Amino acid sequence: MSGQLAEAVIDLSAIGDNVRTVAGVARTGLMAVVKADAFGHGAVPVARAAVRAGATWLGVTSSTEALALRTAGIRAPILSWLHRPDEDFTHLITARVDIAVSTLTHLHSVAGAATRLGTPATVQLKADIGLSRNGANGDDWPELVAWARKYEAEGSVRVRGVWSHLTNAEEPGSRSVTGQVSTFREALRIARDACLTPEVVHLANSAAALGVPEARYDLCRIGLALYGVDPFDPTGPGRFGLRPAMTLRTSVVNVKRVPAGSGVSYGPEHVTDRATTLALIPLGYADGLSRTTEDRASVWLGGRRCPIVGRIAMDQCVVDAGDLPVALGDEVVVFGPGAAGAGGGAPGAAAAEPTVGEWARWAGTNPHEVMTGIGARVARVHLHLER
Ligand SMILES: *Cc1c(COP(=O)(O)O)cnc(C)c1O
Questions:
Q1: Could you tell me which of 198, 197, 218, 200 has the C-alpha nearest to residue 209?
Q2: Mean pLDDT computed over every residue of the chain
Q3: How far, CA to CA in Å, does 133 sit from each of 127, 130, 165?
Q4: What's the pLDDT score for residue 348?
Q5: Distance, CA 223 to ligand 1 centroid (Å)?
Q6: Between 2.130.10.10, 1.10.10.60, 2.40.37.10, 3.40.50.920, what CATH number should domain 246-383 receive?
Q7: Which residues in the chain are classed under CATH 3.20.20.10?
Q8: How far is the centre of ligand 1, averaged over its atoms, from the C-alpha of 324 (Å)?
Q9: Centre of ligand 1 from the C-alpha of residue 280, in Å
Q10: Which of 31, 268, 315, 387 is placed for a possible disulfide with 263 were both Cys, Cβ 3.0 to 4.6 Å?
Q11: Which residues line ligand 1 (CB under 6 A)?
């Protein structure tokens, strides 16, 4: 590593194991959701590892992300679901990427592009069943379905999928989830009554794949679980045996012994209450360590958890190592699978390094935001990389 201050080590064997684990529970096809550079894990290597382990689809947000996978030579089916209002669908059609369609505007422009190309476009119609984001709801849905059927009859469009997304799948059995599932069923009935014959019907994200059987249909779209975080127990090991894929690590770049009463970092709001050893680590909020974790966050250093003290700066923060014998260059694990502790440790326990779920709790957010927030200057290092 030339001059890199920190690295996110991505264990691709964990990605493969997680695909097999979720498939074993859900017993459906799986779409590996690799949007946002695979939640910061690296879209191309993660996509390859997921497909090799049996994922049948890849899911991305945008045409840019979809085409990058095709350029890398990935041939698995891809669904792309968020498009510019004036998106030119030509490239997606040519690259045989499925286009999620929520509006008539997009459906007309997809059909137009397909007609010009002389190649049918493959689309997946999205119903809005409660998020009020993308997807068609109310009377717009039957209208979208009717137009899609018309284009299908003409040969410009093939409707390969009907799908939607739940608002709170982490609460299986809740009235809200049950209601949304039945709204989806109704949307599907309307599509089938209009003679659409979707090959893939899908509704479930990770939480639904693992916890909402009635939402599973043909395919589950997994993000969080793919990366090894249990949606029902994000700070701990969970009950499915998922393996967190990312370890964020760096090393101590400065060490000093300071007396009681020493101010630490900007402010300073933190003053040492005893003589202690402070270790500087070269990671800050520009790298994804949120300032909002102040007074809560800790890292794994010298075989124990040591708190981050004082304000996290843009590029660096200070760890209070107490009386631990810390040396320049010692490894610091910011988060990982939670297995570093004695005897393998137990994720979420103080006897091992923090998990990404704990960082999310400290920051008052979800693990998705922590993973996608790891900055671009943190080097990604992939273990078990195959081409
Ligand atoms: C991000 C995303 C997912 C993955 O969700 P997880 O909760 O991380 O499994 C699934 N479907 C859609 C439409 C998404 O945008």
A1: 218
A2: 95
A3: 10, 8, 10
A4: 59
A5: 5
A6: 2.40.37.10
A7: 12-227
A8: 42
A9: 36
A10: 268
A11: 33, 35, 81, 165, 205-207, 221-225, 368
Enzyme catalytic residues: 35, 266
Other beta carbons within 10 angstroms of residue 350's beta carbon come to 11
Tell me the two tokens of residue 13: 């064997």
User: Alpha-carbon distance 39 to 70, whole Å?
Assistant: 18
- Mean pLDDT across 353-376: 97
Closest Cα to residue 207, out of 163, 175, 242?
242
* Both structure tokens of 34: 């690799």
Of 244, 161, 165, 245, the residue nearest 212 (C-alpha): 165
Phi, psi (rounded to 5 degrees) for 50:
-70, -45
Do residues 284 and 290 make contact, with C-beta atoms less than 8 angstroms apart? Answer: no
CATH 2.40.37.10-classified regions of the chain: 246-383
Structure confidence by residue, pLDDT tens digits, 251-269: 999 999 999 999 999 988 8
Pocket test for ligand 1, best of 18, 19, 221 (most atoms within 8 A of CB): 221
CATH class, range 12-227: alpha beta
The string of pLDDT tens digits covering residues 185-214 is 999 999 999 999 999 999 999 999 999 999
**Tokens, residue 130:** 């409660």
pTM: 0.95
For tokens 């792309």, what's the residue? 80
Which residues are CB-contacts of 15 (< 8 A; sequence separation ≥ 6)?
41, 46, 49, 50, 53, 226, 227, 228, 245
